[in-house]
Amino acid sequence: MIQNPKGTHDIFGSEMTIYQAIRELYINICNSYGFKEIILPIFESSNLFQRGVGESSDVVRKEMYTFLDKGGRSITLRPEFTAGIIRSFIQNKMYANEELPVKLFYHGPTFRYERPQSGRYRQFHQLGVECVGLNSYLLDSEIIALGYDFLVNLGLKDIVTLKINTLGDEETRNNYRNALKEYFANYIDKMCDDCKSRYELNPLRILDCKIKEDQELIKNAPKISDYLSEKSKDRFNKLVAYLDELGIPYAIDESLVRGLDYYSETVFEFHVKNNDEIDIGAIGAGGHYSSLVKELDGPDMHGVGFSFGAERLISVVKDNSEKLGLNFDDQLAVYIMPLGNDKVREEALSIAIALRQSGIPSQICYEEVKINNMFKRAERKNALIGIIIGEDEIKKEEVQVKNLSTKEQIAVSYESLVDTLFEMLPHDDCHCHDHDDCCCSDENESEVGESEKCCCHHHK
Ligand code: HAM
Predict the structure, then answer these.
(1) Residues with Cβ within 8 Å of residue 333, at least 6 apart in sequence
(2) Could you give the C-alpha distances from 197 to 75, 133, 202, 448, in angstroms and in order?
(3) Distance from the CA of 204 to the center of ligand 1, in angstroms?
(4) pLDDT for position 441
(5) Cβ count near 404 (within 10 Å)
(6) What is the distance of C-alpha 453 from the center of its chain?
(7) Beta strands 102-111 and 36-37, pairing class
(8) pLDDT value for 82
(9) What is the mean pLDDT of the chain?
(10) Residue 287 CB less than 6 A away from ligand 1
(11) Which residue of 49, 122, 156, 455 sits 20 to 30 Å from the alpha carbon of 389, by its own alpha carbon?
């Protein structure tokens, strides 16, 4: 049997329902913060990531899916979105044609050749934002607020921790890099092979090493806070003071350096604890970048952004749904149960299509099975209303409508079916004249307050 490639996975069923809810919430929040969606190619020229993400990052050194296409071009499946966004920002001259900052959001698959383990895949999905063209701690704060708002709205407020740090400006990092080189020079022989090459390429990367022996060495390494320029110190202080003002809790973590080369100043990660209070890693991360736009041959402009990992969000939401009182069970409005031959089933399907066109999600039973079995299927689909139809009903142009929770059943004519169903289905924010809180003075009035929804089809 053909299996999916190692490190990939299928998202379906309840996980897909959760992912859809996550994506919908994410899009709404991004829209409310003034971000516009962008779709980028899944593959780009390899040198975009070599230059953008950086030669010293693990992503570029070891994890890229790179191949020659039939024209001999070196192509890479995107390992992240930021470099592609900046390529598009420059190529489409957004810096000149659009008001700055340009605020973009995205979601889609990303590819890294990593060692698969829990929460770590070779194809995974990211949801992210980039805000490009202006440099201010205010934009860093706004981006963090967006990410935090999203997690709060997902119901994760009590289990999420925001870790934050500053990598300072170029002057800061040059001084700090020298200090790290001096410190680690004494321990090169004891370091893992990866850290030996990190020492040459970018000693800051050593701080990100997960190997236990190396972590012991890292503990006593110089701290970036001792090397921050006055400007960077001031920028970071303003940022954290403003986060305090916004009521966003955070923990400053000086060991946070991030694994991609383009960061400067603010960096941050959102972490969650699992049910055993163990940190399961970052569900989202990001930061500020000062020279990425310039390095990709664009103008001297800054940006800031983050990306969430969809698979990690799905698993956190799934694990905590009971505790958080979240319900991601699919619900179906109407399940139609035809009793009889193909002609009856055709009629049932026609009714389902008509109901769907009126905005009522409907499904039918396609097979000839006993009525009890049909009710079981309706239950499994979490249907609210059952419709039973047989040859007699078709002759009378009516159906039997059953409220599947109260078990009440009534005969309803084809003509009044849509109206009856709309009345039976939940409609929390409906204000039409068929309800106690009706806003119309007249039963026949056809207008309703602008923002109000109608469930009875009398108001548009
Ligand atoms: P990153 O930290 O490499 O940052 O990835 C962001 C998130 O993607 C991680 O926090 C994690 O949730 C998820 N993730 C990463 N690798 C995997 C994997 N192998 N399997 C499952 N999930 C994964 C970036 O990609 C930056 N582009 C973020 C950014 C945007 N910085 C500025 N703007």
Answers:
(1) 355, 360, 361, 362, 383, 384, 385, 421, 425
(2) 25, 34, 8, 69
(3) 18
(4) 45
(5) 18
(6) 28
(7) parallel
(8) 98
(9) 91
(10) yes
(11) 455
Q: Is the separation of the CB atoms in 377 and 365 below 8 Å?
A: yes
**Does residue 277 have a pLDDT over 90?**
no
Closest ligand 1 atom to residue 258 Cα is 2
Rounded to whole angstroms, the Cα distance separating 154 from 326 reads 9
For residue 307 and ligand 1, the question of a CB distance below 6 A is answered with yes
- The per-residue pLDDT for 436 is 52
CA 309 to ligand 1 center in whole angstroms: 6
Q: Quote the pLDDT of residue 431.
A: 47
Would you say the CB of residue 125 lies under 6 angstroms from ligand 1? Answer: no
Pocket flag, ligand 1, residue 458 (CB < 6 Å): no
Q: What is the pTM of this model?
A: 0.89
Gap from CA of 378 to ligand 1 centroid (Å): 40
The residue among 40, 48, 207 whose CA lies nearest residue 126 is 40
**Which of 80, 88, 142, 257 to probe ligand 1 with, by most ligand atoms within 8 A of CB?**
80
Quick check: CB of 311 below 6 Å from ligand 1? Answer: yes
